[in-house]
Amino acid sequence: MKSYEVNFDGLVGPTHNYGGLSYGNVASQSNSQQGSNPKEAALQGLAKMKALMEMGFQQGVLAPQERPDVAALRNLGFAGTDAQVIQQAAQQAMPLLVASCSASSMWVANAATVSPSADTADGRVHFTAANLNCKYHRSIEHPTTSRVLGAMFADQKHFAHHAALPAVAQFGDEGAANHTRFCRDYGEAGVEFFVFGRSAFDTRYPAPQKYPARQTLEASQAVARLHGLSDEGVVYAQQNPSVIDQGVFHNDVIAVGNGEVLFYHEDAFLETERMLAELQAKLGKRGGRFQSICVPRAQVTVDDAVRSYLFNSQLLSRADGSMLLIVPEECRGNERVWQYLQSLTSSGGLIREVKVFDLKQSMQNGGGPACLRLRVALNETELAAVNPGVIMTAPLYDTLAQWVGKHYRDRLRESDLADPQLLLECRTALDELTQILKLGAVYPFQIN
Ligand code: SUG
Questions:
Q1: Atom of ligand 1 at shortest distance to CA of 102?
Q2: Residue 320 burial (C-beta neighbours within 10 Å; 0-12, 13-18, 19+)
Q3: Is residue 335 part of a domain?
Q4: What is the count of structural domains for the chain?
Q5: Which of 146, 355, 413, 443 has the fewest CB atoms within 10 Å, i.e. the most exposed one?
Q6: Which residues line ligand 1 (CB under 6 A)?
Q7: Ligand 1, pocket-test mutation among 32, 249, 330, most atoms within 8 A of CB
Q8: 8 A C-beta contact, residue 351 and residue 315
Q9: Which of 7, 16, 21 to mutate to test the pocket of ligand 1 (most atoms within 8 A of CB)?
Q10: Which residue segment(s) compose the domain that 341 sits in?
């Protein structure tokens, strides 16, 4: 049976703004308070989805969330009508209003960890929503994420959904941003590679000194257990704490993998040799030939990687067996990175082509091409069981582009977040979106 890697991209929400909310994420911090353009952000994301679809890749779309999250503000003690809740928060605790307005659910690489059916004990595709426990503005995403994923992958014969892990730092889980899967073919059993930043309970693992390590070993192990993965199909590795301190807040800022290939920076991991040997041995037992491409620090520094998002690229397998790298425009703007990419594609290796996308609106908050997509490997039967409303087609692209044009503002500043009209605009847009994507009622305003 044929199988595919389907990329589900997060649609940028109508409140996209630069709140400076993510300590440890250099772009989020340095662009704090800048004016944003939600319309442009959403159209940039849609353009990437359309381009991949037109190149023949399977492409889907994941809906944004209701923002401002009035229910979250009520949980923090603000009361009255929705407009009063927003007004009080703006007057008394602006940072909380900003957090409740973040469109951060667009970075769906953090929505969940997904294990394909070929890897799991019960032969279903498993999803665990990420608790995103490290940042308040992201910790409020998982209840809606679970409902949206449930509406997209509803057939319980093929899909199993797990609630987010306990909401404490010891189980900090950032989803697929720290998870990669290696395989010979998407439909065959593979090796799932979990990268953690620290251990919650075992003091032998070093931790970063400056910035938080968002993913714990214990969270990754819990996800592997929930998904019914076998020990032979899992490899754990620790991220180098010193790169976290340089702004590598997720592993997908310093490494990307797909098929049998890991593309990574020399400084990305601890105990790299041991890790590579384990990946090679375990993939070998599954009939695959693990290959790694190490980018030397002498050619591209960690700082270059953080600024250009070279590794936050999408590594895609083409029909002829070669690979394509989808990178953000910022890679072209960095001389060393661009030179490296030229030499990579002309060296006769596996990665033959680089395609550049303008995702500046998302990039300014630390979200590149790979952050914007959640990968779900599916066989033909499973793909047919996915809610067809969320699979990208040329007519769906046109509808969504028009929908953005009709509902999104082209300028948003912090002071606009206090405007109760923004909440109404957002709800009107999302109500229409759930009909376009055939999701049913998934948002708090539609349920309560
Ligand atoms: O969690 N930025 C996101 C970026 C997530 C990128 N995802 C991956 N690397 N997979 C984060 O730090 C910034 C929001 C703001 O500051 O307004 C933010 O949440």
A1: 17
A2: exposed
A3: yes
A4: 1
A5: 413
A6: 18-22, 25, 28, 102, 104, 107, 109-110, 138, 177, 249-250, 252-253, 365-367, 371
A7: 249
A8: yes
A9: 21
A10: 3-67+102-447
CA distance 358 to 339: 19
Q: Is residue 34 part of a domain?
A: yes
**Tokens 């409303």 sit on residue:** 389
Per-residue confidence of the chain (448 residues) as pLDDT tens digits? 999 999 999 999 999 999 999 999 999 999 999 999 999 999 999 999 999 999 999 999 999 999 999 999 999 999 999 999 999 999 999 999 999 999 999 999 999 999 999 999 999 999 999 999 999 999 999 999 999 999 999 999 999 999 999 999 999 999 999 999 999 999 999 999 999 999 999 999 999 999 999 999 999 999 999 999 999 999 999 999 999 999 999 999 999 999 999 999 999 999 999 999 999 999 999 999 999 999 999 999 999 999 999 999 999 999 999 999 999 999 999 999 999 999 999 999 999 999 999 999 999 999 999 999 999 999 999 999 999 999 999 999 999 999 999 999 999 999 999 999 999 999 999 999 999 999 999 999 999 7
Q: Cα 30 to the chain's mean position, in Å?
A: 21
CATH number for position 430: 3.75.10.20
- Residue 441 CB partners (closer than 8 Å, separation 6+): 434, 447
